[in-house]
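stuck on this chain:
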Amino acid sequence: MAETNGITEIDGRRAALTIAKAVAVALVVGLFSAFYCWGFWDPAGAMKHVPVGIVNLDEGAVANGEDVNLGADITRHAVEGDAANFVELDADALDEGVENSGCLLVFEIPERFSRDVMSGTDGVPKVADLEVYKNVRYNYIFSQFSSSVEKEFENEIDAAIVNAYVGGAYAGLERARNGFEDASDGAERLASGGDGLGIGLSSLEEGAGSAAEGAGSVASGVHDLAEGASVLDVGAQSLADGTEYLADSTQAMPGKTDRLASGASSAAQAGLEDFASGSRTLADSSDVLVSGIQQANDGVQSVAQGAGSMNQGASTLSGGAGALAAALPQIRDGAASAEDGAERLASGASELVSATAAGADGLSGSLAVDSSDMGAYVADPTNARVEKYGALDYYGQGFAPLFMTTSLWLGALMIFFVIEPLCPKQRGAGRLRTVLGRIPSYLAACALEAATVTAAAFLIGVPSMYSTSPFLLFGYALSVSVCFMLIMQFLNMTLGVAGKALAVLVLILQLACSGGTLPVELGRGFLASMKPFMPFTYAIDGFRETITYANPSVILGDLGILAAAGMIFLMLSLATWDFAEKRRVVETAQFVAWNA
């Protein structure tokens, strides 16, 4: 009965252990997917946190009379913005290459950048160069993700260039506007001068009309005056003739009277005859006198009529002269107004010409390039020249270091499914012999795995871009394999099956934290903090260097860290030998009991 209970107890523990192992496996599988997805939840968004360097060498330029440094403006705007984690680097940051700059992506703005960009303000624009340096060797996938950052920075540049040209064009339009405002003022003066000239000419016309009327009146008065003077002259002549005739007749009358008186005194009869004759003569003289008086009267009337005509002509002449005198100030004012209007007209015309020319110059300076040429330039104003450090042809080449490292880790783990981590306990066998006894077998397995990985890499063309030595690649793969083997020996020797499970957990952690696929800079901060402690970090980096440039300092640096890690775990294996032996005894007893 006791034996049955013991068997039942062993079976129960065995079942419980089996269930625990199954649960552990399920947890490991779930952890792998959840941890990796959690670690790189938003790599594209995380690009904003990756340092991107900017080296501004722009010497600036002069445009529209002002100093312009587009490189400084672009750098400042990029650093202050949130499109990416842009940082300004010193001018000598790239002297030792982008791989030693502290950034995976660096933009360099050359010395002539502003001069080339602003050349379009007064001539044909030149496409500005932009140097882009990528550290592809660090992480191939990052180099692909960085295209979004490149686009953001190019957008910054395009915005700065468009802003510069729009600002320059607007400045030209402002100058044109000022010129056309002056032209408008000139046109107003021109219009005002034209109005003044019109008013002056109208006044001049009215004055000239009044003057013409006055002159006509003067001419009419002079004509009437001349006619009156002529009539007056004729009347005066008639008056003079009549008066002279009257005087002659009057002078003859005393003689006739004397004779009449003398005839009356000497003889009445003879006198009567003479009286009759004198009376007849007197009558005739009286008729002559009457005729002379009548002629004189007619002359007087003619004189009066001529005097009236002269008076009327003089009045007309006086009125015409007055009208002419009144029109003369109006003519003078009209002439002055016309002269002032003409001056303003000339001044406005001159200002209109000069202002229009200034406006045209402003537009001409801002629109110095054909619209189609400027459109093509603004569409692609920069020439980005990309220089890649560790460039590769294919994604497979970029992933190869990770896959080769993972293969060697799994190969090291599988060694201990085939070979026990400890030599069988022999009488008198000590710590060193038990721990190190199977190292030669492990090394042989490691060499076989390294050779297989190297051959596969060359077979599919991983090192095709570079003259990679197969012996160098094999030597590095062997070193990585030995390091991983020593780690696996410690885990398997000390923890047994749990050590194997732990090795799988460490593998999951390293896949996320070593930057083999996506760089840790694109993941959670926890990943970056764990990266320096992961063997994968140095194994992958060394493979990348071996496949590309084979820089001895980098390879030896990675090998040194891996060798140190291997030696540490070997020391731990030696240090935990007693614990490992006890664990082996317990597991052996359990195995015998379960299979009895």
Remarks:
- The beta strands are 51-56, 61-63, 66-68, 85-88, 105-109, 128-135, 382-389.
- DSSP finds 16 helices and seven strands in the chain.
- The chain has a mean pLDDT of 74.
